[in-house]
Amino acid sequence: MKHVSILIPETAVIEAIADPRYLFTAVNQFLIAAGKQPLFQVQLVGAKKEVRLNNDLFSVHPDSLIKDVKKTDIIFIPALSGDMNSALQANKELVPWIIDQYKNGAEVASLCIGAFLLASTGLLNGKKCSTHWNSYNEFRTMFPEVEIVDGSIITEEHGIYSSGGANSYWNLLLYLVEKYTDRNTAILASKYFAIDIDRESQSAFMLFEGQKGHEDEDILKTQAFIEKNYQEKITVDQLADMVNIGRRSFERRFKKATNNTVVEYIQRVKIEAAKRSFESSRKNINEVMFNVGYTDTKAFRTIFKKITGLTPIEYRNKYNKQAAVA
Predict the structure, then answer these.
(1) What is the pTM of this model?
(2) CA dist 199 to 164, 207, 209, 255, Å?
(3) What is d(CA 227, CA 246) in angstroms, rounded to the nearest whole number?
(4) Is the pLDDT of residue 38 over 60?
């Protein structure tokens, strides 16, 4: 019997508590129906007897308090909401327990931006991590010792797991079901909950807004220029000359400020513009390609798929209803 502990932090997202509980409870029922023994003992665990969530809209009562749980096999850290600094401060009581359980052999999995609470334990230092794509910049600022894997839905390293944003945490839950049971049970669960079992990337859902939270005025100036003139051919030398900085120094400062190389940033701005065009217009692939400054169809397709995980046609058909019908 595997002991599953689902934490109930302050400011937690209620669905990220209910969903893993529902899934692992359902898997027990699948196993029983197949003539097997149930595998999971599932319980909600918290620091106090009642946790109020969503401005007191929900009240959650743990099955056990952390002080009473001496040994568990896996801990789920649900997504948090609101200001992350405040959320971490409100949940600092949970941190020593998570660390102690991990050292005692438990695995730990964060769902969506539950990664912030997981990272605050220090257990992720020097390791890879996934979280919601919209939180990448804030996460990198708060936890520079942790490597964010852009676009990834699942990371696994030394018994520590993390998932991508929002509902993509279902893919991590199914991954763990398969790990602890078998492929057939995971497939049954995926069909029951209508989840695509092998989706590996959240890239198609990402919006690129650029890292603007830095204070390097020269780099901010070049970012604004790129975003205004993405239809044109822009070179690194052109941008460096614009702010009177040597090329090597400019590239170093740009990477430090934005977490992207200059070329990557230009590509991502162009592809973001292409995505918006595919979503809202009936332009064909070549028209969109030329409009964002590409002339090589193969290069455009390769870069588009690298960034979004989909080909231009796949992306257009996924997000433009008129184009898909046509």
Answers:
(1) 0.69
(2) 11, 18, 24, 30
(3) 22
(4) yes
